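Two records follow; treat each independently.
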Amino acid sequence: MDVNGGRRGGLLLAAVAVIGVLVVVLAVRGQEPDPPPAPKDVGSLDATATPSQRPSQRPSEPPSQQSAQDPVGPASAQPLGPSSPVSISVPRIDVSSEVITLGTTDDGILEVPQPGPDLDKAAWFDKSPTPGQPGPAIIEGHVSTKEGGPSVFFDLARLRPGDDITVQRQDGTTVTFEVYAVRTFAKDKFPTQLVYGGDLSTPTLRLITCSNFDASIGHHTGNLVVFSKLTDVHD
């Protein structure tokens, strides 16, 4: 992968045109009969605020209308070059998963983990930066499946500002991200630019799964997005 900012920005903007299908595809693999409750929006999309400074949300505007930019601010950790993620750990919700790599199908639809040995693994979207590179890295995962019940991101809604997400990269480095916001969006109003765009110079990470299961129609109607920023790098 090229670390050139212009090229990376171009790839992200091109990907945004087809990424909206994620909000539908993550829900079409069957659903757990007893899904987690609808998550609450917490934190502020101001990535420079400390957890104690972050309100649950800005009362003057709904979460979906907040800024699509991740403020640059003082960096807690320097950006890295490209290296694919191999595993992810989220201690608060006891998640420890291998990370597979997925792209888009021939029809331009974002791939998701399929039935088989990779179904319940987290997946990095290969048109996004690798975790630690400038820009928003995207890691997705099922909330539940017919085949196995609760999946890798079943408890993602429990994350709160200040929680850590650790990703092991192929080059041997370990990068740690701090959660600063959790948001739920209706699938038919998914803010693609907010989630997949924003500041392309700051290393950030988004975790995405489905939410808001509607028993009357048999699938989820929302997407849960966890926003986090790079805070530490270890060899």
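The next record belongs to a different protein.
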Amino acid sequence: MGKNKPTYYESLYEVAAAVNSARTPGSVLYSIVGKVVDAAGAKGCSVMLLSPDRKLLLHTVTYGLSDSYIRKGLISADKSISGTLKGEPVVVLDATKDKRVQYREQARKAGIASILSVPMTLRGEVIGVIRVYTAEPRRSTADDKYFVSAVANLGAIALENARLYDAVQKDYEVLQKEMLEWRAALGYEWIAEESVVPVEE
């Protein structure tokens, strides 16, 4: 699908650096899909996360795809290359004819030929997919699958880091509030104690 190994290695390093940065989760994921498109020489890339009930795939971040294709309709987890949710990469050579593709006509209109769909896994659970779209039919190599799978794992880590950061921030804010209340209470106690200290004659 893509370019040579050094390009994949360099892109993987850049993705890891983005994940390790202080940027927002959205900007990190956007950087990731952009790097995948550049490294693979692809038409577009999308991160789609599973809805809480695991019935739908939701376009979270995309790069290189038209608005009309992104908004083509609800994406069923069971009807849209569902094999990926079993934890393995899936290659669709002809997205306009393969019955595993839910919106085949929309893929044709968008100029999408092939799709590589890779699971995003966190602690053994699939939380979504990364899909790479090409404008011409391509058979993905083992290197392509390894690269996109590694990027998918880094993307999952970025999302988890964001969740943990939010949790820590909330915990810190609660702790800070409790500390302020505690200090305020101590202040009131100190004032009360000072007020009953007898004055020396």
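Discussion point: The helical segments are 5-19, 25-40, 67-70, 104-109, 142-195. How would you locate this feature using only the token line?
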